[in-house]
Design goal:
There is one protein chain. This protein has 503 residues and is mainly α. It has helices at 41-52, 56-68, 71-98, 105-113, 115-145, 159-179, 181-211, 220-223, 233-245, 261-290, 293-298, 302-310, 317-346, 365-377, 384-412, 424-444, 448-469, 476-488, and strands at 357-358, 490-491. Helix 1 (41-52) runs parallel beside helix 10 (261-290) and helix 2 packs antiparallel against helix 9. The chain is globular and about 70 Å long. The chain binds arginine (ARG).
């Protein structure tokens, strides 16, 4: 879809009327609304950190331990997940500053492999993985939010109460996000601070216990005993750990709203992901300073067991903070997924209404509402681990393809300007590891679910040909678009390239 330019990829909107550096107030944008650049470095870093830290660090340690079967190996998996996320995000820093469009992987896949692959990505992400991630996080929120009303040993909360609570969470964040970008980023910053505080409490408590001599499970002489010898089982361990790290690519979804993206995109990545890695490692060490591996495996909520053991009458603060953490992560996920649906709409890959922006609030209101409706629909009964495994399977196919895009674009377009240039080995490592990540869990425990997920991904092609390639749109869709346009007070949008030069 792009033409080779001497500076970088073509930055025209799909009608081809916008060129980088042109006066933005001219006739080209008449009647159109562009998203504003209002996200600062602090807001951007909070979007990364606050989406990465969500439910996973409070729930996944059990899944990682179950697969690796030893404390030592599970800590290594947590470290490797952090290294892999950092490598992946650095590749995305190169891509995001070279192609400064919102929508995460979508514009990069488009420029590298062409429209069909980009379409499959947006198809899977908009319809399946992204909304399901929001509902997994909202369900974890609900689980902790209703806890005070249903003491665990007396009665389990009814499923309908949990679903209602999760639904309320999604509706609340939808309101905030539709209403104002500033408000959504402020929510993100506040909740990120809250979750960092919660993890700091866990870490300090754990390290005090370590100082008192509770080191028996962490002693390297014993901590690797009994490690699983099944190489493929580690694939699932990675899935569980990588769920906690997922969100490392968040900032690439909102490049068009970031102030000075050439500086703030790479900086946000370089600050955010190592910070989360260190915090996660220390948190895991703290857990093992207080709990034996066997206790961890039988705990339904590690952080709560930890708090009950160590914080006495103050133990309630941990479930409270888990609510804050999941609420913030759901907010960040909706924020970015809305941008994906919006950009895909602008490129003609989804229905037109999704590419529109609210004329007063300057938010992609239709795309946000659409994502929330899907997320609410996906509050289906299912267990956390299974959902997370399918999420990771589908996601890593595209993370791998995108990381490989760094190499492909260096060959295909060596002349594009690259404000950030990463060593190619990072891209190769992420691409190879993602092949392992997609294949290993299937070899270890073949399940029809993976087959269904693959069929779903490929089935997107049936829609691609008539709807995108041939551009077929039934007549009534025009009426539908106008109806929603009036209802939601939204207008068509345009791509707003960065004004700053990267030097
Ligand atoms: N890491 C988050 C958690 O632990 C999940 C993030 C899901 N991914 C996303 N892009 N929304 O809950």
């Amino acid at each position: 879809m792009t033409e080779v330019g001497d500076k970088g990829p073509d930055t025209r909107v799909n009608e081809g009327r916008e060129r980088e550096g042109e006066n933005r107030d001219n006739d080209v944008h008449k009647g159109k609304v562009g998203l504003a650049r209002q996200v600062t470095l602090l807001g951007g870093t909070a979007i990364i950190v606050g989406t990465m830290i969500g439910s996973g660090i409070f729930a996944s340690p059990v899944g990682v331990l179950r697969q690796t079967e030893s404390v030592g190996m599970s800590l290594i998996i947590w470290l490797l997940c952090g290294v892999l996320s950092t490598f992946g995000a650095l590749c995305y820093a190169e891509l995001g500053t070279m192609i400064p469009k919102s929508g995460g992987e979508f514009p990069y896949l488009m420029d590298t492999y062409g429209a069909p692959i980009a379409f499959l990505f947006s198809w899977v992400s908009i319809i399946l993985t992204r909304p399901s991630s929001i509902s997994i996080i909202a369900l974890t929120f609900a689980d902790y939010a209703v806890q005070p009303f249903f003491p665990a040993d007396e009665c389990e909360p009814p499923v309908v109460v949990l679903k209602m609570m999760a639904c309320i969470c999604v509706i609340l964040i939808t309101f905030v996000n539709c209403f104002s970008v500033k408000a959504a980023t402020n929510v993100q910053i506040i909740f990120t601070a809250a979750k960092l505080l919660a993890l700091a409490i866990i870490i300090v408590t754990g390290f005090v216990k370590l100082g008192q001599g509770n080191t028996e499970y962490l002693d390297p002489r014993v901590s690797f005993k009994g490690s699983s010898s099944n190489v493929f089982a580690y694939g699932i361990a990675f899935y569980q750990g990588l769920w906690a790290y997922d969100g490392w690519n968040q900032l690439n979804f909102i490049t068009e709203e970031l102030i000075n993206p050439y500086r703030n995109l790479p900086l946000g990545i370089v600050i955010g992901i190592p910070l989360v890695t260190v915090v996660y490692l220390l948190t895991n060490i703290a857990y093992f300073a207080v709990m034996s591996p066997d206790e961890m495996l039988t705990s339904s909520a590690v952080a709560v067991t930890f708090a009950n053991r160590t914080l006495g009458p103050m133990a309630w603060i941990i479930p409270f903070f888990v609510c804050c953490s999941t609420f913030g992560a759901a907010n960040g996920s909706l924020f970015s997924t809305g941008r994906l649906a919006y950009v895909a709409g602008r490129e003609g890959h989804t229905i037109q209404i999704l590419s529109m922006v609210h004329a007063g609030f300057i938010t992609p209101l239709p795309a946000l509402t659409f994502t929330s409706v899907l997320a609410i629909a996906m509050l289906i009964p299912n267990d956390f681990d299974t959902l997370v495994n399918y999420f990771s399977f589908a996601s890593w196919i595209f993370y791998g393809l995108t990381a490989a895009a760094v190499v492909v674009l260096r060959i295909k377009h060596p002349e594009w300007r690259r404000p950030v240039k990463v060593p190619l080995v990072l891209s190769i490592v992420v691409a190879i590891v993602s092949i392992y990540l997609v294949i290993a869990p299937i070899i270890d425990a073949p399940e029809f679910g993976y087959l269904y997920a693959s069929i779903f991904i490929l089935s997107g092609l049936f829609f691609y040909y008539p709807l995108v390639y041939r551009g077929y749109s039934p007549r009534f869709m025009d009426h539908v678009t106008v109806f929603f346009q009036n209802l939601m007070q939204v207008a068509p949008s345009y791509y707003n390239p960065p004004e700053e030069d990267y030097n």
